[in-house]
Amino acid sequence: MSESLRQYLRALPDFPELLPDFDPAGAPADPAELFRQWLDEALAAGVPAPNACSLATADELGRPSSRMLILKDIDDDGWHFATSRASRKGRELSANPQAALNFYWQQQGRQVRVAGGVVELSAAASAADWHARPGANGSDNPDWQLYALRPREIEFWQARHDRRHLRHRYSQASFG
Q1: Is residue 139 part of a domain?
Q2: 126 is in which domain, residue-wise?
Q3: Average model confidence (pLDDT) for the chain?
Q4: Under 8 Å between Cβ of 56 and 102
Q5: Model confidence band, residue 60 (pLDDT cutoffs 50, 70, 90)
Q6: DSSP secondary-structure letter at 85?
Q7: For position 1, what pLDDT does the model report?
Q8: How crowded is residue 105: how many other Cβ atoms within 10 Å of its Cβ?
Q9: DSSP state of 46
Q10: How many domains does the chain have?
């Protein structure tokens, strides 16, 4: 069974025939600008939920976990996301305020990885985010927290059919 699963997995297609071109030499100095370009291109290509990403955290012992969530914003504070402080990710961020976000747009053969420290944003910003959620009913949620991931590194990855995938990496020194 294991060998047949291996063969089955190896035979699955990787990426569509046509992939966007990417020349790292022409990338903007600001990684947030490149992210916005790629996000716009993903949206124009019909990628469902292009603002969805995987958030990876680790507990106080370094045991990792990940889950999907929605990117809320990018500004000078960092890359915003929100959750309840009482949730598993909220508890893990309290114990170990480091995280990574990963966006994957299979239809375009693109991935964006963002890693760094995480800070809590203000109570006012958290409340505003809670009230702006779809289906908000006007009630307060004191456990709701808006966070900002402050990037230490950001990597843009573009798949290529010749398997010579392109990586374009920004380090904190280059953008922060």
Answers
A1: yes
A2: 24-175
A3: 94
A4: yes
A5: very high
A6: T
A7: 53
A8: 22
A9: T
A10: 1
In degrees, to the nearest 5, what angle opens at C-alpha 76 toward C-alphas 57 and 79? 25
Kindly state whether residue 4 falls inside one of the protein's structural domains. Answer: no
Amino acid at 85: R
Instruction: Show the tokens assigned to 145.
Output: 């927290």
19 located within any domain: no
End-to-end CA separation in angstroms for the chain: 50
> Would you tell me how many other CB atoms lie within 10 Å of the CB of residue 108?
22
**Residue 127: CB partners within 8 Å, gap ≥ 6?**
140, 144
- Does some domain include residue 145? yes
66-80 per-position pLDDT tens digit: 999 999 999 999 999
Beta carbons within 10 angstroms of residue 165's beta carbon: 14
Residue 57's domain is classified under what CATH number? Answer: 2.30.110.10
The whole-angstrom distance between residue 130's C-alpha and the CA centroid of its chain comes to: 20
